[in-house]
Amino acid sequence: MAGRSPTGRVAVKQFGGCKLLAEQFAACNLLAEQFAACNLLAEQFAACNLLAEQFAACNLLAEQFAACNLLAEQFAACNLLAEQFAACNLLAEQFAACNLLAKQVAALVKEIMYQKGRSIAETRILKCRGSLFGLVDCGGN
């Protein structure tokens, strides 16, 4: 640095210092951009976590919907069972009516047989009463 003045050397040193400062400032700007990128990445990560929670909620909702469908099927089965129970009750009532009818028929047959037997007996008695000196055989018919 011969031939330079001390002021020139100072100026060169100061210029070198300014250049270094400018590089450090550029590095700070780059660091700020990287920090902003990290913040953006953190926001995206949080958004991904939220999306994962929403997806889990959707899966839960789908399971609840499937459970509701199953419940609806069980309710329909209960309604069918209630209809079958009502049909069984109707069948039991019809069976009871058939039993009552059978008892009434049996009583009617018994009455008819009684009346028929009585009629046959009365006919025999009348025939026997009407016979003179036993000309009619009352014991056979």
Protein described:
This protein is mainly alpha-helical and about 140 residues long. It has 1 helix and no strands. The mean pLDDT is about 85.
Chain-wise SSE layout:
Layout: H1 6-130
Relevant terms:
rod-shaped, 1 helix, mainly alpha, 141 residues
How far apart the termini lie comes to 172 Å
The whole-number mean of residue pLDDT values reads 85
The level of helicity is: over 70%
Rg (C-alpha, Å): 59 Å
What is the count of helical runs?
1
Look at the helices and sheets and give the structural class: mainly alpha
Low-pLDDT parts are none
In short:
With 141 residues, this protein is an all-alpha fold.
